[in-house]
Specification:
It is a single chain. This protein is of the alpha/beta class. The chain folds into 3 domains: 6-122; 143-185, no CATH class; 212-330. The chain contains 11 helices and 8 strands. The strands form 2 sheets. Strands 4-3-5-6-7 form a 5-stranded parallel β-sheet, with helices on both faces. The radius of gyration is 25 Å and the shape is globular.
């Protein structure tokens, strides 16, 4: 049997996680590139070193159990945690740390960020072959079988009264535990997501006010942001299919423009009634980069992915401007 090729992926500058060891198995034979369309050089480099196929996850569906790894360009929202949750080794091009609603599934053994082509190399000859781990379904089935066996054994040893008390106690404990865990996760999300975002917004407002760049940019975007027709044009541009997947990751564009418009509205240079249509105008691209991931989570057929991704992207050209117009109509009387 030929030696198994093993590729080592390390974190890039300011990155996190890893290193990851990637190898082809009997079932995992595809490097998935989910980076806004096309095959990213990082994904192609890994595929070339392993001698396997690199596939564009935006245009064709890649089954989760066929992925050697998933190369993504998430700025720290949903995708960075989706693939680790599915048990897929994940390589993020952005130098982020675990964040988002699925951050608990991310660890240094299944996620690495800030990766560039130079961070990919063949592992040395002493690298052991990757262990074969049970699938997610096998783990669930095993845990469930063990739990059922323990429950039956305990029930056979307890009296009816003791069994009832035990059942009530476990139910109450489960509810209390759920609320306790929810509290922990809420605090964790506030510390790792909400507070950094508030600091970012504060910094942006400070820079805009101190440097005066807000006045310059405001004059440039005023033809678009100061009236409903400009808002419609802005939403149309943001929803263009080849732009929306690029503008989506991290929501940086929406954050910057949103802060700018907020400052201008607060300063009285823009009408407050434009806040609602502006919200929809600068977010026409939201979720465009997540479409193939969502279809994968929904276990869509390959043909559905091929048709569904462009269908959703092109539909944004229609729904984006329409949402701005509807928001404008609802803005009457708000202020």
């Amino acid at each position: 049997m030929a030696d198994v090729k093993v590729v080592k992926v390390t974190k890039g500058e300011k990155g996190w996680g890893g290193p990851l060891l990637l190898a082809e198995t009997d079932k995992k034979k595809i490097v998935a590139s989910v980076t806004g369309g096309g095959i990213h050089p990082v994904a192609q480099r890994i595929a070339d070193l392993l001698g396997v196929e690199a596939r564009d996850g935006f245009s064709t569906k890649v089954e989760v159990d066929e992925m050697i790894c998933a190369v993504i360009d998430c700025g720290g929202t949903a995708r960075c945690g989706v693939y680790p949750k599915l048990g897929v080794l994940t390589i993020d091009l952005h130098p982020i740390t675990p964040s988002g609603p699925l951050m608990k599934f991310m660890n240094e053994e299944n996620f690495v960020s800030g990766v560039k082509v130079e961070n990919i190399a063949m592992a040395d000859g002493s690298t052991p072959p990757l262990p074969v781990t049970p699938t997610k379904e096998e783990k669930k089935a095993h845990v469930k079988a063990v739990e059922e066996e323990v429950k039956k054994e305990m029930a056979s040893k307890q009296s009816p009264v003791a069994a009832l008390i035990n059942k009530i106690g476990r139910a109450v404990g489960g509810v209390v535990g759920a609320f306790y865990q929810a509290g922990r996760e809420s605090v964790d999300i506030v510390i790792k997501n909400v507070l950094p975002f508030m600091a970012f917004i504060s910094m942006m407002i400070g820079l805009i006010l101190f440097t005066g760049v807000g006045n310059v940019i405001a004059e440039a975007v005023k033809p678009l942001s100061g009236n409903i027709f400009g808002m419609v044009v802005l939403s149309f541009v943001a929803a263009i299919p080849f732009l929306s997947p690029v503008l989506g990751p991290g929501a940086v564009i929406a954050q910057v423009i949103g802060v700018l418009l907020g400052v201008e509205i607060g300063a009285g240079r823009l009408a407050p009634s434009m806040a609602l249509p502006a919200l929809f105008a600068i977010n026409a691209q939201v979720g465009a980069d997540f479409v193939p991931v969502g279809l994968t989570l929904a276990e869509a057929e390959p043909k559905t992915v091929e048709v569904g991704v462009p269908a959703v992207l092109f539909s944004r050209l229609i729904t984006g401007p329409i949402s701005v117009i509807i928001a404008y109509l609802f803005s009457f009387g708000l202020y």
